[in-house]
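User: I'll paste a sequence; please echo it back and then give the predicted structure.

Assistant: Echoing your sequence first, then the prediction.
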Amino acid sequence: MTELKTAQQFTNDDFIRLQGESNPPLKEAVQLPDNGFVAAKEQQNPPDPAVSEVKAGGVSGWLLTGLALVLLLGGIQWAEFVQQSLTQSWLQGGAAVALTGIGVVAVGKMLWSAWRGKRQHQMRQQWREEALTMQQSLQYGQATPLCQRILAALPQADRSAFLAQHNLQFSDAETLQLFDLLVLQPLDQQASMRISAAAKQAGLAVAVSPFALADMLLVSWRAWRMMAELSEVYEVQLGAVARLALLKKFANLLFWTGATELAIDIGGDFLGVELSSKLSARAGQGVLAGLMLARLGRFVQQQLRPLPLLPAEKPVQPLLQSLIQQLLQRPPAQ
């Protein structure tokens, strides 16, 4: 057993001396001018005034300015024509005034519809963001007012089952899940039927049509009509400008993720040797046209739906299989 060391006593002076050695005195502060520093990011990548100006204005600003100038010049020319018509003949002048009134009413109605549709689209986007936050939390009491606002925007939706089964003791995530199941899924079934019908019609038409221009016109018309049908299902006013904006967003999305998603949807069935030998080139184009239209329909459905659409494993796979079976049963195009 080793001997214990003798105890060593410390005083307050020893503690003060050790603290002074461990904390050396700080140097005197030096005040530097504010302009002596340059941000590293700004120094490496100085902002370009021309690029900043383009980003601030944007291409859409130039387009709107040009469109406003064209409309202004057209309005001036039309006003001069109406004035000359009134001076020449009261019948010709009356017809010009009537056409002017009809044009003003039509333009006003179109602008009102576009503004209202934009408001509805923005409101649904806000609802989806709120619902996504609620679905990932354990809070209570916030989903019921959201569901009431959505029901007010969907007057034709069946709400009796939801109101009968809803309980205030449910969490927000449970309330949204019940609302999605009882109120929105019947609308989703209607939308899926519209999308499936449009995709099958376009795919079969492309498969039997020998003209490429006719295929493009037919697919464009069917896509335009399908978007109108989906807007009726979800009770959103979708004007021409809003449809073009959705087509632009879909084209951008398809540019980045389209090839991967198409390969996943088609899978080994379409790329298999046995099925590839049975399908002709036109039939393959019909399958791709139908698949594109189905993708567009699902994208529009996601944009019009008031709550986030749960991603399915293969949402268009049943439609693709049905379309391929119909193409195999049809005789090849001459």
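The first helix runs from residue 12 to 22. Residues 36 and 295 are 56 Å apart (CA to CA).
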